[in-house]
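Minutes, structural biology subgroup

Action item carried over from last meeting: produce the structure token record for Peptidase M50 domain-containing protein (Jeotgalibacillus alimentarius). EB confirmed the sequence was re-checked against the source entry. Recorded below for completeness.
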Amino acid sequence: MTQVTEKKTVQPKSRFRTKGIQALFGLLMGAMISSFVLREEVTITLTGVLFILLMAVISFIVTVMIHETGHAIGGKLGGMEVMNLSYGPLVYAKVNGKSRFFFKLPSLGYIGRAVMRFPEQVSDEAMRKKLLRMIYAGPVSNIITGGVALIIGYFIWPSGIILTFAMVSLFLGLTNLASIETPAGVMTDGKIISMLKEREPGAEVILVSHKLLQEDPTGAGHWKRETVERTEHIIRRYPDRPLAAFLLVTIGPYYYGSDPARFLELTDGRVFKNRTNKAVVLQDMIDTAAATGLYFAGKLCETDNIEEKLQLISDKNEVSGYMRDAYLAIVRGENSQALASLDQADRAIGEWHPLYLEGAIEKKVTQEIRNSLKINEDL
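Output recorded by EB:
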């Protein structure tokens, strides 16, 4: 099928406005800090500077918590439900319907995350509006709390600690409203807002991701056919957008057991690419999904240069690394090593994982491969 490539650009006026706002904020904060130091006759010492730096770190942690909680509240007001909330390595998640807490390192460069889903079906337009409310709620929470702290710390009850919190909170809120996407595919709230408001292409990727999550939060492949077809269309439409290609990982389970050949058609040109520093973890997961499709299609061992292709998968995500090792072992006829690697992948996912959540479908896939290998050993 013909692929349509859309440039991911921000309008020059929008970029100029964002830079202008950031520069103005920097000037205002600099002027306010200078006037505060002069007005309060603050003595600058090394101990004082170190103390303020410590307060800045603590303030950052608190503002991240406020930010993500703001997203959660905004989502709840729109009828969404919380799947998990991450405050750095501290994670609250729903596992098998029960509230659980975990200590997990952040993934994909996100310092905090609020993963929400729509429990009931909603139209695209209603979903867009509710998502905008949820996304805006994070940075707006920072701006409001930062603004209140600024008034208190500068005018009502002069305090360097409160003023530091205000600066950090305002900075986080305003920066998140800028439209930024990192090479790894990490997007600020402003980027998502810009896409949902159709100032930039890509709203379809966000909407269909939430549609898939609404229809089947476990990712086991229980989606409506029209939703899967829509996802296929979006994957083809945005060949250069990492998050669009990542939809391959999401919908893979729909095809593995029923039509792996069709899934492999979707992966054409999107997998086993030479690595750069861009989106390595996402690309590793996409390549692992492609290898899974090859396995279920019975084509893993006969694919040209498959060992070299599999070795492109890095260890940055340990689950992808273990799955790579399992497929390499299968290609080499080392079934016992493959079984050991599959066990390691399951253990790496554990009860909950920041990329795989409960990992129900991943564990189902590893079990099916495990059963297949054991049957082959018995023959």
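Discussion: The chain has two domains: 12-196, 203-378.
Next step: EB to file the record with the rest of the batch.
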